[in-house]
Design a protein that fits this description.
Layout (H helix, E strand, L loop, with lengths): L1 H23 L14 H11 L14 E5 L5 E6 L5 E5 L3 E5 L6 E4 L11 E6 L3 H4 L1 E10 L2 E12 L2 E13 L9 E3 L5 E4 L18 E5 L15 E4 L3 E7 L5 E6 L11 E5 L24 E2 L12 E3 L2 E6 L4 E8 L2 E8 L7 E6 L5 E5 L15 E4 L6
Antiparallel strand pairs: 1-24, 2-3, 3-4, 4-5, 6-7, 7-8, 8-9, 10-11, 11-12, 12-13, 14-15, 15-16, 16-17, 18-19, 19-20, 20-21, 22-23, 23-24
Bound molecules: calcium ion (CA).
């Protein structure tokens, strides 16, 4: 009798769980993807569509709070389903960081840390909860040559396994390695690549350098890409920030020129498929037929060194390395109407900025990269309350 009751009870639980699962299963959303979604991309779209809008943050939260210290060039942050942070360090380390708990190190093999290359962007598959897939942008050494690769691993029990090379041959160099990776609202993976110190690559549509690339989750080329290759847009020098606003418009930040005497001309661009963003032919406000002009540039006398991009409540945020600020560009009708500098010189060089699941901004300092003044506790991850930004 006791057994039968147990079985009955278990049965009821299974039915309740199944009902809850059905209720939680997201409905398809209408998307304007010209390419017919495969089963995989459909799953991604459904996973993306269920991502919650960041909550409005209370002004009772601290304006700034240091969450982690003594890091070594933290390059990117991804948020795991349990709310902890996954943080990449450029020298090739990956950490799980949760406030008040010991840091967990995850081994990443075959990273070549050289100049601006190393372990760069990280992003979770939109359906990470189920498939545990993590994407990494890594500089590596292939027969003595620097090459950047996009890798896909399974991340389970703080261990990487099932390595797959999604993109093998992105030009690499000591400088201009790009490196930000991000899934778009269309379920495709977007990748920013630098010209790797050969500026003519940016105009060469056959090269993967100086581009924004767009691939399926397995690295294959979507049928609706503009040139039948991974290339989505070109004429970029060293883009390191991409993000979509609430209308699905893609924004990008990009490092401008550096010569012995000239700097500045950093860019905020609105990215459209197949378009040419001008490097190295035009910069700043200069125009040329068939080339796009930035929505904002830093001018010749100011250098932001924009290293990231995040979008929150009508503002495009980006970290400034040389500019030593968190920049906030106000976006109205696809125009940048205002540009503010937050925390100017307070934290030193700022690299990544991400919006957390709690609606707060998370930034990393980058004073250990050899170009900054190291402050006590550098490098850091700092949480910023956006409702208290002036
Ligand atoms: Ca440009």
């Amino acid at each position: 009798m006791k057994n039968r009751l147990g079985i009955l009870f278990a049965g009821i639980i299974v039915i309740i769980a199944a009902a809850a699962f059905v209720m939680k299963t997201p409905h398809k959303t209408e998307t304007e993807t010209p390419e017919k979604p495969t089963e995989d991309t459909q799953a991604i779209l459904e996973a993306s569509s269920t991502e919650p809008t960041p909550p409005v943050v209370s002004s009772n939260m601290p304006a700034t709070e240091i969450l982690a210290e003594n890091l070594d060039i933290p390059w990117d942050i991804a948020f795991l389903p349990d709310g902890s942070m996954l943080v990449s360090e450029r020298p090739g380390n990956l950490f799980v960081i949760q406030q008040g708990k010991p840091r967990i190190a995850i081994d990443v093999p075959d990273v070549r840390h050289v100049g601006e290359g190393g372990l760069l962007g990280i992003t979770l598959h939109p359906n990470f909860k189920q498939n545990k897939l993590l994407y990494l942008y890594v500089t590596t050494d292939v027969k003595g040559e620097f090459v950047n690769q996009v890798l896909r691993y399974k991340l389970e029990n703080n261990t990487l396994s099932n390595k797959e090379v999604i993109l093998a041959n992105i030009p690499g160099a000591q400088f201009h390695d790009g490196g930000r990776i991000q899934f778009g609202p269309d379920g495709m993976l977007y990748i920013t690549t630098g010209d790797a110190r050969d500026e003519d690559r940016a105009q060469d549509k056959k090269s993967l350098g100086g581009k924004i690339l767009r691939v399926r989750e397995d690295g294959s080329i979507p049928a609706d890409n503009p040139f039948g290759s991974e290339v989505y847009s070109y004429g970029h020098r060293n883009p390191q920030g991409i993000v979509w606003d609430e209308n699905g418009t893609l924004w990008e930040t990009e490092h401008g020129r550096t010569t012995a005497t000239l700097t500045g001309m950093d860019e905020v661009n609105l990215i459209e498929k197949g378009k040419n963003y001008g490097w190295p032919i035009i910069e700043g406000d200069k125009t040329a037929p068939g080339m796009e002009v930035p929505k904002r540039n830093s001018g010749a006398n100011d250098t932001w060194a924009p290293a990231s991009a995040a979008y929150l409540n009508g503002s495009l945020f980006f970290g400034g390395l040389r500019g030593e600020a968190l920049y906030e560009a106000t976006i109205v009708d696809n125009k940048v109407t205002d540009l503010k500098e937050h925390f100017k010189k307070e934290f030193g060089r700022i690299r990544v900025v991400r919006v957390g699941p709690d609606g707060m901004l998370y930034i990393s300092t980058s004073n250990q990269d050899g170009r900054g003044t190291v402050q006590k506790g550098d490098d850091k991850i700092i949480r910023i309350n956006p409702s208290l930004l002036k």
